[in-house]
Design goal:
single chain, 334 residues, Rossmann fold, 2 domains, 3-stranded mixed sheet, 14 helices, 16% strand, elongated
């Protein structure tokens, strides 16, 4: 009867303890990286990318390949043109996607993955510059790299069987985010550019500005407009409001609530409601928001004041649009 080797069994029979050991191993490795990473090495890598007309090509096998895909996605979404290339596919024709102007960043814990090592000579012949994220600077990959971003695992992988990559893939991911953060700041990446790369979903919605949602053809009447003219403007505008304008200057706004209150006042005063003018009805100090305001901030202002729209104004105070709460719902800002 063949008995199991002690190495074939988990290091503990307590699942919670296994989780704690994994966390401890990862925490120790991240602390070691924090104490040892080389800012100058990262600076030269970033400067190479900023000066190069090419793209950044990420590659790696297995779990390292999955991490490489995430890093490529992060960098691409933060202003660094990047894509993932599977090393096996590269060996079977996809290497044609890489040009001499590109930079390659390869992930491999050991630095000796077979497909990666077979790919290196072709990359070197192309003349591309190579970066590596690996635990071994003395590996074939580490020695071939122009930039070698290393990490250590003082407490091992943290795997209960001391086998599956766990802490190592986390450290690769941390290195990728570190490089992305450095590149974002060095390249002057802004929220506006981030929004350009995230036009859909919650991220994109939270970065929309009111100028992207506002109605530029909004209803307007003169202060002397009659109640009938006010109602006609509101009906045609379909926003439940109208602005009151004197030339290009905003004198006030009229909402449905303003009309109800004006009618109540007319009834109490025993006057004819049809004699009311826009100036009699309007609120003279409407809530306005600058054209560069984030839509999510406008939504907060509406919620706080219990209103359904805001007037959007240019830097000089001239109105240029109206944002309605329905526009915010449609864009999934709220």
């Amino acid at each position: 009867m063949v008995q199991d080797s002690p190495l074939s069994r988990p290091s503990t029979s307590d699942p919670a303890q296994a989780a704690r050991e994994l966390l401890a191993a990862t925490r120790t490795a991240v602390a070691a990286l924090e104490a040892s990473w080389d800012p100058e090495l990262v600076r030269t890598w970033t400067e190479n990318l900023l000066a190069s007309p090419g793209r950044l090509v990420l590659s790696g096998m297995g779990k390292s390949g999955l991490v490489a895909q995430k890093i490529a996605a992060t960098l691409a979404s933060t202003g660094c043109p990047s894509f993932y290339l599977h090393p096996a596919d590269a060996l079977h024709g996809d290497l044609g996607m890489v040009t001499a102007q590109d930079t390659v960043l390869i992930l491999s814990n050991s630095g000796e993955s077979e497909e990666v090592i077979r790919l290196l000579p072709s990359l070197l012949r192309l003349g591309v510059r190579i970066g590596a994220i690996t635990a071994r600077a003395d590996s074939s990959l580490g020695q071939a790299a122009d930039w070698c971003f290393t990490y250590t695992l003082p407490a091992g992988e943290g795997c209960p069987l001391h086998f599956a990559p766990m802490a190592s893939t986390t450290l690769q991911l941390v290195w990728g985010d570190l490089l992305a953060a450095h590149h974002m700041v060095a390249s002057g990446f802004t929220l506006e550019r981030f929004a350009q790369f995230h036009p859909a979903g919650n991220l994109g919605a939270r970065l929309l500005k009111v100028k992207e949602l506002m109605h530029t053809d909004y209803p307007r009447v003169a202060p002397a407009a009659s109640l009938v003219q006010v109602l006609e403007a509101m009906t045609n505008g379909k926003l439940g409001m109208t602005t009151v304008m004197v030339d290009d200057t905003l004198a006030g706004i009229i909402s449905e609530g303003d009309i109800r209150r004006a009618l109540q006042r007319a009834q109490q005063a025993h006057s004819n409601p049809l004699d009311l003018t826009a100036q009699d009805i309007m609120s003279p100090k409407p809530i306005c928001t600058p054209v560069a305001t984030l839509a999510v901030e406008a939504a907060k202002a509406m919620e706080t004041r219990k209103i359904t729209f805001v007037v959007v104004v240019e830097a000089d105070g001239r109105p240029c649009g109206v944002v309605h709460v329905h526009d915010l719902f449609a864009a999934k800002v709220i």
